[in-house]
Amino acid sequence: YTNRITRHQNPDENILEHKRKRAMENRCAKLQLELKEEGAVDEGKIDRRVDELRQKLMKEDFKRERGTLKPHEIHELAAMKVQGNRKFCSAIKVNASYVEGKAFDKELQAEHKGNQREAED
User: Fold this and answer.
1) Per-residue pLDDT tens for 31-90?
2) How far apart are CA 24 and CA 113, in angstroms?
3) Percentage helix, strand, coil for the chain under 3-state DSSP, each rounded to 5
4) CA triplet 24, 54, 76: central angle to 5 degrees?
5) Whole-model pTM?
6) DSSP code of 63?
7) Is the dihedral of CA 24, 29, 31, 32 positive or negative?
8) By C-alpha distance, which of 68, 71, 76 is closest to 17?
9) What pLDDT shows up at residue 1?
10) How far apart are CA 59 and CA 77, in angstroms?
11) What is the pLDDT of residue 2?
12) Can you spell out the DSSP letters for 4-38?
């Protein structure tokens, strides 16, 4: 069993953006339906209020809180994992060029020792 969250996987930014836009449009559609059901507002005002809501949501970027993610939202979880890893690496001062497992790569270590010997000469 491999955990889908801990696997090294980069989030697909297009999918994340699509989900944010879809959520914004859902909120706008709900407002539009509510205003039409009231019947007291004309079409021009409905369109203006929906556009105002859309602009407001775009400014806020309509991001969800960390605790509201569901297990099937793999891209969101991966994005949070990448961000968390960056913060952790920054906190323990790990160089951005660090490659996991390079200490166990015999060829790379031999090359590194050769470079050190040349530098000493």
Assistant:
1) 999 999 988 778 889 899 999 999 888 887 655 544 566 666 777 777 888 888 888 888
2) 56
3) 70, 0, 30
4) 30
5) 0.48
6) P
7) positive
8) 76
9) 37
10) 23
11) 44
12) TTTS-----HHHHHHHHHHHHHHHHHHHHHHHHHH
